[in-house]
Write a structure and sequence with these properties.
The protein has 523 residues and is mostly helical. Among the domains are: 124 residues, no CATH class; 155 residues, no CATH class. It has 25 helices and six strands. The chain starts with a helix and ends with a strand. 48% of the residues are buried.
Length: 523
């Protein structure tokens, strides 16, 4: 049975950077499974981030430092046809975090462009390959100091343990042994959670990640995986996870293979990674059954393959818990939309772009009272903007639930977001409708209304029809009566005396919806 247009918009809200009328019609016609399979089969985006940043070197105008990588990120996120891949890559950037903040790669645009491309090519591949390429990418190596990490000196220097710790804690197995449904295993004697690794395991893993450096000395070195340097690699016996011993004199490549195979085959990986992807796409509080089904897809794709990320994505997005509309009324179902996704939703819904060539000069959303409080590739630490287990004080914490995105939701970010959205869509009397600013993040959406929201303008004198259209685009058809009444009253309070009044009606409706609590919580 074909999904309704509201159901199609709901899937697109979960799986992409936001619905468009065209994409809603596509999913409505094809159904969720066919659309998903076609998205999974699409080739990599062309041009790649590396091509845009390093080869083409434009069109970037006055870009500096990592600005051109940010431009490329937004270009693909907003205009890429491979929307599922783009959303998956964004999710992976928040799990396998590298950042330009307090980082050895703070101004290396090619480093971050190449890292995004690496995540792109592995987004629909196998997790074993993904975790190896993450481990060997020079951007990650420099960010978490496994790059040029040297072997131990007896009685002296020891290998850096940073990456050894984070690959276990954040990238693969987590801190506690898990059941397949994501619940913690408990020690039968003490009744306490069982840790997944020890400090001795970290020391052993740190020795694994010694002896890795540049893959080339040419200018494109950031686009090549790190290569072993034998004289820097520890040849000691390495005791790692689950009692595995890597024999003395094992070379760097074989040590890495054994270590990554050990992590990849750990029973925690399915529920640990699966639950995080559910939280990125669908809901902050999946049921144990939902986590278990996604973990099962990770463990076996149906053909005996472990770690097939296509199977995992299908399990996340096609599960009954994701698709059943009965969940919409569950107060504990859903997730807070993070600021980056909200803004991309706005740009996709209304086809926001500059004049040719299209350049998204969106570089910093973090500062001031007119800002979103979040920026791609600028997380404050390897723990991302928020951790998947974060629970704000109050009912969420007391009921043992999580709401990760609320970590960056406070007075400053709420005010900044509201001001930013209102400022983006409100008409400014001193600006003409054809004026074009140099910086997109200073351009008001009203400058695009004439060209890109003509359908909305045509409905300005029909408040119910206008709200219906915005409800589908921005709310997946879920607008509640109280919000509808507020928006309709605000529209009716603006008499249509000229074209500017029509613009004001549309801008007011969009602003009120996107600033509403109901919009902010994705269901």
């Amino acid at each position: 049975m074909r999904p309704s247009k509201s159901d199609a918009a709901r899937l697109l809200t979960q799986a992409t950077f936001g619905p468009t009328i065209a994409s809603i019609d596509e999913v409505h016609a094809k159904g969720a499974t066919q659309w998903l399979n076609e998205q999974l089969a699409l080739p990599l985006h062309n041009p790649s981030h590396w091509q845009y940043v390093y080869v083409d070197k434009g069109p970037k105008g006055d870009s500096r430092y990592v600005n051109s990588t940010m431009e490329s990120f937004w270009l693909q996120a907003v205009r890429g046809n491979d929307q599922l891949r783009q959303r998956m890559v964004f999710a992976l950037t928040e799990i396998f975090v590298v950042s330009t903040v307090n980082s050895a790669v703070d101004i290396q645009e090619d480093a971050h462009a190449s890292y995004l491309d690496m995540l792109s090519r592995n987004a629909f591949g196998n997790f074993r390959t993904l975790i190896e390429e993450v481990s060997l990418h020079p951007t990650m190596g420099q960010y978490l100091s496994s790059f040029n990490n040297e072997k131990e000196v007896p009685g002296g220097r020891q290998p850096d343990e940073n990456y050894a710790r984070e690959i276990m804690q954040l990238f693969t197995i987590g801190l506690w042994q898990l059941n397949n449904d994501g619940s913690r295993k408990l020690d039968p004697v003490t009744g306490k959670p069982i840790s997944t690794y020890t400090q001795a395991d970290i020391k052993g893993m740190a020795r694994v990640f010694t002896g890795w450096s540049w893959g080339a000395t040419t200018a494109d070195a950031y686009n090549l995986l790190m290569q072993p340097v034998a004289e820097l690699h520890s040849t000691s016996e390495k005791a790692i996870l689950n009692g595995v011993l890597i024999p003395a004199n094992t070379n760097a490549r074989d040590s890495l293979r054994i270590a990554l195979d050990t992590l990849f085959n750990h029973p925690n990986v399915g529920p640990f990674i699966g639950s995080q992807l559910i939280k990125r796409f669908v809901t902050s509080n999946p049921t144990p059954g939902y986590v278990s089904r996604v973990a099962a897809a990770f463990n076996n794709n149906g053909s005996g393959v472990r770690g097939d990320m296509k199977a995992v994505i299908r399990a996340v997005l096609l599960d009954d818990e994701a698709r059943n509309n009965n969940r919409i009324t569950d107060p504990y179902f859903g997730k807070l939309r993070e600021p980056i996704i909200r803004y991309a939703n706005l740009m996709r819904a209304f086809d926001v772009k500059t004049y040719a060539p299209i350049v998204y000069r969106i570089w910093n959303f973090e500062d001031g009272a007119f800002s979103l409080g979040q920026n791609p590739l600028r997380a404050p630490s390897v723990f991302n903007w928020y951790q998947p287990t974060y629970a704000p004080p109050g009912m969420v914490l007391s009921t043992n639930r999580t709401a990760p995105e609320f970590k960056i939701t406070h007075e400053t970010t709420v005010t900044g977001y509201t001001n930013y959205i209102v400022n983006q869509v409100a008409l400014q009397t001193e600006r003409s409708r054809t004026e074009m600013s140099v910086y997109l993040d200073q351009v008001h959406i009203d400058e695009y209304l004439a060209g890109n929201v003509s359908a909305e303008l045509a409905l300005a004198d029909q408040p119910d029809a206008l709200i219906d259209r915005l409800n589908l685009l921005l709310m997946a058809g879920q607008i509640q009566p109280w919000l509808r009444d507020i928006v309709k009253q605000a529209i009716n309070n603006i008499p249509i005396t000229d074209n500017r009044a029509r613009d004001d009606r549309v801008a007011t409706a969009v602003s009120l919806i996107m600033a509403s609590p109901q919009y902010l919580v994705q269901k």
